[in-house]
Amino acid sequence: MGIVPKRLLLFFIAAFLVVDARSQQLQLGGAYQGKNLYVQNPFTTDMKDFCTNEVYVNDQLVMSDIKSSAFEIDLSSFKLNDPLNIKITYKEGCRPKVLNSQVIRLNSTFQFSNVVVDDKIINWTTKGEKSGDKCYVEQFLYNNWVILKEIPAKGSSSSNNYNFDEHHHAGLNKYRIKFVERDGNVFYSKVVEYQSKKSEVTFYPKRVSNKIYLSRDTEYEIVDGYGNPVQKGKGKEIGCESLKEGIYYLNVDNKTEKFLKK
Fold first, then answer.
1. Using alpha carbons only, what angle is made at residue 33 by residues 28 and 38, rounded to the nearest 5 degrees?
2. What pLDDT digit, counting tens, does each position of 18-49 carry?
3. Helix (H), strand (E) at residue 10
4. Are 152 and 166 within 8 A, CB to CB?
5. What are the two backbone dihedrals, phi and then psi, of residue 110, each rounded to the nearest 5 degrees?
6. What pLDDT is attached to residue 156?
7. pLDDT tens, residue by residue, 157-166
């Protein structure tokens, strides 16, 4: 084989560097927590191809040439708390999005050691906190996780204990604690359930002129026919004089009831 001319050799080197520069990477490291990862995979800017090139798990190629707008990275072969390093390469001008990165526990000393709910309080204990971290008490209401309270973390690397007054509705309640480190790492406790003995909230009338009457004192929210909140509060009576005529929805006791303002 003859000697490659210097100009041609420089061309080959430059071409390789351009291709390498166009290959973008998204990396996620941590520990396996028992769930797969889900990735949103948009089109490239020219709309001719999908964004993701290849997916590597612990430096092993597991997926390539992905032709769908979303995909799942199967991690079921790993054991709980096995170390993980996920690398996703993608094309220039677009970026895939990991939809549930919180299911991989990031490298951190933080951990939940206990979460308990009873008829009076929600109690949880943590270890490995740092100054500037935050706790969020969340409850599953109306098919969404809703933040009840933001609490500054105590910041001790040893044991930290927290209490929050119950916020039960009638029937089955679900709670979890979200913990956010100052550098952005997010951790979720296990979901804790509690079966409340509180009586179910009822209301009347269904055709309202001035007031709605609730069977017991509780928090409520009124939503219009377009899903916009128009009134909220706590009590046994709801003044509706300011509402315009039409159909509304009453969110109360983790259920949604329909009523007519006449």
1. 55
2. 333 345 899 888 888 889 999 999 999 999 99
3. helix 6-22
4. no
5. -70, 145
6. 93
7. 999 999 999 9
> By three-state DSSP, how is residue 123 classified?
strand
37-40, strands of its sheet edge to edge: 70-73, 37-40, 97-98
Nearest alpha carbon to residue 127 among 96, 168, 153, 157:
157
| pLDDT score of 13 | 28
Task: Spell out the residues 6+ positions from residue 59 whose beta carbon is closer than 8 angstroms to its own.
Answer: 85, 87
Maximum C-alpha span of the chain: 95
Phi/psi class of residue 93: alpha, beta or left (left: φ > 0; alpha: ψ in -120 to 50)?
A: left
Q: Which stretch of 1-15, 62-76, 108-122, 235-249 has the lowest confidence by average pLDDT?
A: 1-15
Instruction: Give residue 187's pLDDT band: very low, low, confident or very high (50, 70, 90).
Output: confident
Q: Which has the closest alpha carbon to 223: 238, 202, 204?
A: 238
Q: Which of the 8 DSSP states describes residue 40?
A: E
- Report the alpha-carbon distance of residue 114 to residue 127 in Å, rounded: 10
Taking residue 45's Cβ as centre, other Cβ atoms within 10 Å add up to: 12
Q: Where are the alpha helices (DSSP H) in 150-260?
A: none
Question: What's the half-sphere exposure (Cβ side, CA atoms, 13 Å) at 167?
Answer: 21
